[in-house]
Amino acid sequence: MAKIYFFNTQVKPLKTSDGFIGEAGYNAVFEFLSDSVSEAVKTKKLHNLGSKLYKSKFHLVFRKVEVLDGYAQGLIRKYDKINSLKDFYTDNPIYEAAPGEAASSSATDFKFVFDYSSHILAIEDVDNKFPNPSSVEQSVIDLLEPFVHRHRSDASTSCNVLKETSSLSRLMNSDGFKSIKIELTFSNPNGLEDEFEAEIEKDLRDRNVDKLVVQEKAASGGHITELNHREKALFKLAGRFGDASARFLNEENKLETYQMKEHPVKIQLRHGRKDTTESIFGKIKSAINSALNRAS
């Protein structure tokens, strides 16, 4: 069974007073990307436009981009680059790429949908071949930012994997912590339901704070007492807008490590016999709202 990962992918003005790009802006970015990908495929230069994944031999690149009403869809390719293949025993060359050729020993395509309203990039993983989601964040930024700057030079791009806030339950109930760390990026307007979380998020945005880092450590031999209301809100916001970690006392009064990045939102996707390519894209898009709820 396939599964879908989700990435909160935002274009943010350097000064919020200059306004956000909105749905029309995201549409423009993906139109630029679509044109560039089509030209690169035609001229066989696409392999040079990829972004190398963190601590990996593989690269990512948008292979096909279709711009539609309110969203874009297409394919993202994971691939390696090789110039030659050798015989295992003799080291004699079996294959050598000619000048200008693009060779790969492994390439896999993944369907994606980018929704302009929620600025969520949803990517389908089939057969567990998709990279670790956390390693993909910087590559998505690298792939989109040149086209973001074509549309608007005074903007930056961020990408955060959506994470399960349900994974916070044991941590939230702990009465002792050795350390906590929370990182948040400021965001596009989001209409959060929790009033206090919305107030924090709006304050970061209005004051042009690009990243908030909260780090607390207890003295040697001591513990931080239970989380206060603000810290709990920040941990929950990290599900959409950042990352978090902690060393906390579990139910057995033993220290346990929590890493939010180990709990990405992933929604199972079943392929039926009657499914078409378009119906699968539709299922991927339909899963976005559920993913946002699970990261809230």
UniProtKB/TrEMBL annotation:
Protein name from the UniProt record: DUF4747 family protein
Organism field: Idiomarina aquatica
Taxonomic path: Bacteria, Pseudomonadati, Pseudomonadota, Gammaproteobacteria, Alteromonadales
